UniProtKB/TrEMBL annotation:
<protein>
    <recommendedName>
        <fullName>Phosphoribosylglycinamide formyltransferase</fullName>
        <ecNumber>2.1.2.2</ecNumber>
    </recommendedName>
</protein>
<feature type="binding site">
    <location>
        <position position="64"/>
    </location>
    <ligand>
        <name>(6R)-10-formyltetrahydrofolate</name>
    </ligand>
</feature>
<dbReference type="InterPro" id="IPR001555">
    <property type="entry name" value="GART_AS"/>
</dbReference>
<comment type="pathway">
    <text>Purine metabolism; IMP biosynthesis via de novo pathway; N(2)-formyl-N(1)-(5-phospho-D-ribosyl)glycinamide from N(1)-(5-phospho-D-ribosyl)glycinamide (10-formyl THF route): step 1/1.</text>
</comment>
<dbReference type="GO" id="GO:0006189">
    <property type="term" value="P:'de novo' IMP biosynthetic process"/>
</dbReference>
<feature type="binding site">
    <location>
        <begin position="11"/>
        <end position="13"/>
    </location>
    <ligand>
        <name>N(1)-(5-phospho-beta-D-ribosyl)glycinamide</name>
    </ligand>
</feature>
<keyword id="KW-0658">Purine biosynthesis</keyword>
<feature type="domain" description="Formyl transferase N-terminal">
    <location>
        <begin position="1"/>
        <end position="181"/>
    </location>
</feature>
<comment type="similarity">
    <text>Belongs to the GART family.</text>
</comment>
<feature type="site" description="Raises pKa of active site His">
    <location>
        <position position="144"/>
    </location>
</feature>
<dbReference type="InterPro" id="IPR004607">
    <property type="entry name" value="GART"/>
</dbReference>
<feature type="binding site">
    <location>
        <position position="106"/>
    </location>
    <ligand>
        <name>(6R)-10-formyltetrahydrofolate</name>
    </ligand>
</feature>
<comment type="function">
    <text>Catalyzes the transfer of a formyl group from 10-formyltetrahydrofolate to 5-phospho-ribosyl-glycinamide (GAR), producing 5-phospho-ribosyl-N-formylglycinamide (FGAR) and tetrahydrofolate.</text>
</comment>
<dbReference type="InterPro" id="IPR036477">
    <property type="entry name" value="Formyl_transf_N_sf"/>
</dbReference>
<dbReference type="GO" id="GO:0005829">
    <property type="term" value="C:cytosol"/>
</dbReference>
<dbReference type="Pfam" id="PF00551">
    <property type="entry name" value="Formyl_trans_N"/>
</dbReference>
<dbReference type="GO" id="GO:0004644">
    <property type="term" value="F:phosphoribosylglycinamide formyltransferase activity"/>
</dbReference>
Length: 194
């Protein structure tokens, strides 16, 4: 299976996903694509010998469809079987998502269905939650709403700042996403709960 990984920033999830696709793994990274030419993950992917591409969303302004048709054009050149969104910060329209339905995963830094959208750690702290975590789900047209494939939980500590909680959750993202992708690429949809 060929996996394209879409990033917007540092790409720490991309690195751990790429590293997890060892010789015995049913999948291989075929592309790392960023929507920002300054994404730090691009250099990390190049250092790992993974092909990279950039489709900068800014020239397209509010025209999501035009951005996504360029995204699709570039992706087609690498023929991915699976797309992994990893710290990818653009909302994808129903048109794009439908084309990839059942073959596109995302990692979200909350225990969905709680805290869809942004500022998830701040919201968990403000709500006084005892637990937080991350979720890997199939991407559907409903933002952060697709079938859940795995979750990892962490305690919220007294005095936690969003940054400290984010770091604790990110560690679990790096464990969860590779475990889910390995199963997903082998056709296994059983949930992973860490
Ligand atoms: C992090 O906030 C992570 O929780 C979310 O995307 C952001 C960047 O992740 N998944 P990465 O280091 O670019 O993978």
């Amino acid at each position: 299976k060929r996996v394209a990984i879409l990033i917007s920033g540092g790409g720490s999830n991309m690195v751990t996903l790429a590293r997890s696709m060892t010789a015995d793994h049913p999948a291989r990274p075929c592309l790392v694509l960023a929507n920002d030419p300054a994404a730090g993950g691009l250099a990390r992917a190049e250092a790992m010998g993974i092909p990279t591409a950039v489709v900068d969303h800014r020239p397209f302004g509010k025209d999501r469809a035009a951005f996504e048709s360029e995204l699709t054009r570039v992706l087609k050149g690498y023929a991915p079987d699976i797309i992994c969104l990893a710290g990818f910060m653009r909302v994808l329209t129903e048109g794009f998502v439908t084309r990839w339905q059942g073959r596109m995963l995302n990692i979200h830094p909350s225990l969905l269905p709680k805290y869809r959208g942004l500022h998830t750690h701040q919201r968990a702290i403000e709500a006084g939650d005892a637990e937080a975590g991350c979720t890997v789900h199939e991407v559907t047209a409903e933002l952060d709403g697709g079938p859940i494939l795995g979750q990892a939980r962490v305690p919220v500590e007294v005095g936690d700042t969003p940054e400290r909680l984010a770091a604790r959750v990110l560690e679990q993202e790096h464990r969860l996403y590779p475990m889910v992708l390995r199963r997903f690429a082998a056709g296994d949809r059983d949930r992973v709960d860490l």
